[in-house]
Amino acid sequence: MKKYRFEYFASCPSGLEDILAKELSELGAKITVPVRGGVQFEAFHEVAIRAILQSRIASRVFKFLYQFEVNNEKDYYLEATDIKWKSLMDVTHTFRLTTIFGDLPFEREEFRNSQFANLKLKDAIVDYFRHHEGERPSVEKDFPDVSFLARVDRGREKPYLITILYDLCGDPLNQRGYRISKTEAPVKENVAAGILKLCRWEPETEDLIDGMCGSGTFVIEAALMAGGIAPSYLKVEKHLNNPEIKQWTFLNYPWLTKDELLMENFKNILSEIKESSMKGFEKLAKLKGKISGNDLSEMSLLSARDNLRKAKLDKYIELTQVDARVLNPGENKCLFICNPPYGERLEHGEEEKLKALYKGLGDHWKHNFKNKRAALFTGNLEMLKVVGLKTSKRHILYNGDIECRLAEYDLY
């Protein structure tokens, strides 16, 4: 059985792996290996904590724990009972298990059912504690103290390769804490941050206009980036005010809580984030580039205002209500970003309205945004043809389960 020490995996939306790898390197990771859906990296534990608190792109961060090969589900149970689970959790902790499958041998039928695989691992954990502690921990699906991920892949010497990981986060990292009001099918926060990075937006020299801001995700993520404010700043504030309420599940794990130096470093990181957030708001007040959001829907603007207030950014971002096809830039350099409706459930006759919207955006940019930039993010790939402009770059991204395109336009 292989036991890991300093290996981690950060998951992210597909299409943002390279940006996440760069971000992790900047945070101090020594080795980063982008794979589909995330980045494997090697780093000291402090760097992994920094990734949880400061990554704008990661969805979750996992710590590799153990890896072993098995022939069947019986072997799986026996190997799992050899793990020293009391070093990973307390018997008083509730726990949750998630099993995912990679490449499996087609001729074998074991482990085809994730619920069955979860049951085998749960039995191993429970029986281990019964034997060593005389009592058992409880399973909790919604709000567990500890969360484990098991991955089943094709083995090298035996049919199955099992990898056990900690989920260090609890809630997904894209849930920053500012979205208290949302519109239909909003862009995930880390997707929005990734799009801004892909577009190479420069807040010191370039205005940002979100033409259809919805609940305000793009403009909020833009402001956090421009101010150098950590995406976890609201959770950090909550933790500092009430440390008893765990904002991240890694605070329940013995490998952290029993390491006095690591705990001291964690406290220092929290203080850094608090101080940098205060400086970040001051920086936003002096920012040369202007961040503004717009939407034709009054309900969307109400949602955006609620979220801006929660994020403490309402003083720094201007919202307007007007058709995106008549919005005009100022004299500054400008990036016009837009996430128009995808039209997944079009009623009769609405397809022509959607085509008119996309074409209208393209025509408006062509005539009124010369020497500016535009970026359109959509899950309706056919509508990109309707825009009528040549793209300078295209990126394949996923917003949840929806395959999308980010199209960039240099306007002349």
Would you give an account of this structure?
By secondary structure, this protein is α/β, with parallel strands linked by helices. It has two domains: 2-167, VC0802-like (2-Layer Sandwich); 189-244 and 276-410, Rossmann fold. The chain contains twelve helices and 16 strands. It has helices spanning 17-27, 45-54, 73-81, 114-133, 189-198, 217-227, 233-241, 254-257, 260-285, 298-310, 350-368, 383-387, and strands at residues 2-3, 7-11, 31-35, 38-42, 60-70, 94-101, 138-139, 146-154, 160-167, 206-210, 291-294, 318-320, 333-338, 373-378, 393-399, 402-410. Strands 1, 2, 3, 4, 5, 6, 7, 8 and 9 form a nine-stranded mixed sheet that branches. Strands 12-11-10-13-14-16-15 form a seven-stranded mixed sheet, covered by helices on one side. β11, α10 and β12 form a beta-alpha-beta unit. α6 packs across α9 (260-285). It is globular.
Write the layout of secondary structure elements.
Blueprint: E1 2-3, E2 7-11, H1 17-27, E3 31-35, E4 38-42, H2 45-54, E5 60-70, H3 73-81, E6 94-101, H4 114-133, E7 138-139, E8 146-154, E9 160-167, H5 189-198, E10 206-210, H6 217-227, H7 233-241, H8 254-257, H9 260-285, E11 291-294, H10 298-310, E12 318-320, E13 333-338, H11 350-368, E14 373-378, H12 383-387, E15 393-399, E16 402-410
Parallel strand pairs: 6-7, 6-8, 10-11, 10-13, 11-12, 13-14
Antiparallel strand pairs: 1-5, 2-4, 2-5, 3-4, 5-9, 8-9, 14-16, 15-16
